[in-house]
Amino acid sequence: MELLSCCMDKDITARVKSFAVEDKRRTHLETWPTLLALLINGYCLVRSAYPLLSLFLSLLQALLIVRIFVIYHDSQHGAIFRKSFFPKQVMKLVGLILLAPEGIWKRSHNYHHASNGKVPVSGAGSYPVVSSEQYLRMNFLSRLVYKANRHYLTIFLGYFTVFIFWLNVKSCLQSPRKHIDSSLSLLCHFGFSWLIFKCFGLQVYFLLCFFPFLLAFGIGSYLFYCQHNFPGAVFYSGKNWSYAQSAIHSTSYLQTNRWMRWFTANIGYHTVHHINAKVPFYTLPKVMDEIQGLKNDYPISLGLKDIVSCLKLKLWDEKRQSMITWKEFDAIYGERTAISLDDNAASKL
User: How far is 343 from 62, CA to CA, in rounded Å?
Assistant: First the structure.
């Protein structure tokens, strides 16, 4: 069975790899109009004298930020702009303004791809996931930090928690010399925001910068969360883990309408992306359509019911072989939780 699984993994990996070819013309047609749309939309917002129109343009600005971020993410994987010097520099600038400088982003995100679906999952490049048994062995402070990292407010306030603090401030504090680009990113981002405020006032700053960034990074943080924390997600430990199987079974397939597919640059086809990150974002739907076995049995959507069901999941339970909620954890391990807390308290005496 292990040999058969290994052969299947190699076959599907090889088939997806054949799609990891950049169409340079398509790359340019997808990227530069998006950047142009951001600039034009921003200009229209500055000039708008109508509150409802300004609010609509602010929402549109947030969605365009989501799209350009995913395009930047693709460039960091080498899926696009592989041998194009100037576009790479533009993407680096985009990363700095969007609080995802190349250095820390590549290190954390590459780690995430290399360890996708493994348990325990550290907080490096991902939302942490531990098993129920591992959680029982944690002390009080570790549990508190774990719960805070997976709280829905931490996710939806990703502008502050993930992008400002984790990717930049924390990196600067831990290793200032190693993460100079994080300091530069903070400078670029807040320098840009200050310039908008100084030139156009508080209202334009709020509608053009603060609200779009807050919404875009909140959407981005949730997308990143639900891509690996969803009903039906499977986590592996030790020798049971394989790159291809974790890509399919530990990664969600997010079904959205055509407009959201465009604004999210097809990031919902995440199983394909995790099998081979060098497949350009505009090719992901074609790969999913042409290769059987890439869709897992638990597709999700951006509907409220699916969002709530994903956010409720907190721990990987090895007995059930599924993600469980805090309520389910208490029902299964209630007495052991109390004993574990008593042991932790006693150990401090």
Answer: 48
